[in-house]
Amino acid sequence: MRILYLHKPSAEILARFVEQQGKLDFNYSAVGATASTPPAGYTVDRTRIELGAGEEVFDAAKFALLNWQQFRLGWVDVWSTEARLEVGQVVAIMGQAVGLWWLNACRIVYTIDESGPISSFGFAYGTLPGHVESGEERFLVEWDQESDRVTYEILAFSKPNHILTRLGYPLVRRSQKRFGRDSAASMFRAVNEAPAMPKVFQNTGLMSQTSGLL
């Protein structure tokens, strides 16, 4: 199964890849764990940014997620951007590093659409065999109506699933951190006209049998 390309894969290659991967199961066992506690033995990353305040910002953030804006980064992209946010949907995630395009497959595990004192919208996807990592990632926007603040958060747990990611793990970790920062910036730009962006908070930890999320 080919995962590396000198040029960004064509729509034909991506469609065939997604079709093939859609027939396969997840490559990790803790499916849905981003909704509770990430499993032991995985590196856990959390990225969080305040997008603004009010229902208008929250609606704009929801629209951005629906259109996969968090992946419109230039060096990272998703196929297809027309994919619906629904359980079972399979997408291809492309990332460029060391002059190559890396192709990965994910399936949406669950979606979130809740109203209340804290309104939430988002989804999580998990990795399929055609992914250089194994694990899960959740993308969530929340509107705390008491404080009126709207936030965007990424929560992920992962570990290498390919010999190249094991050998080049320091580069993988830099790319994962960069994705968190760039994704937060893309979401902020999607809902704001102001040029000044607040600080992006990132936290990393390794889950063990006795530790909590760091």
Automatic annotation (TrEMBL):
Pfam families: DUF1990. It comes from the Bacteria. Transmembrane segments: none annotated. InterPro entries: DUF1990, UCP010260. Residues 27-185 form the DUF1990 domain. This is DUF1990 domain-containing protein.
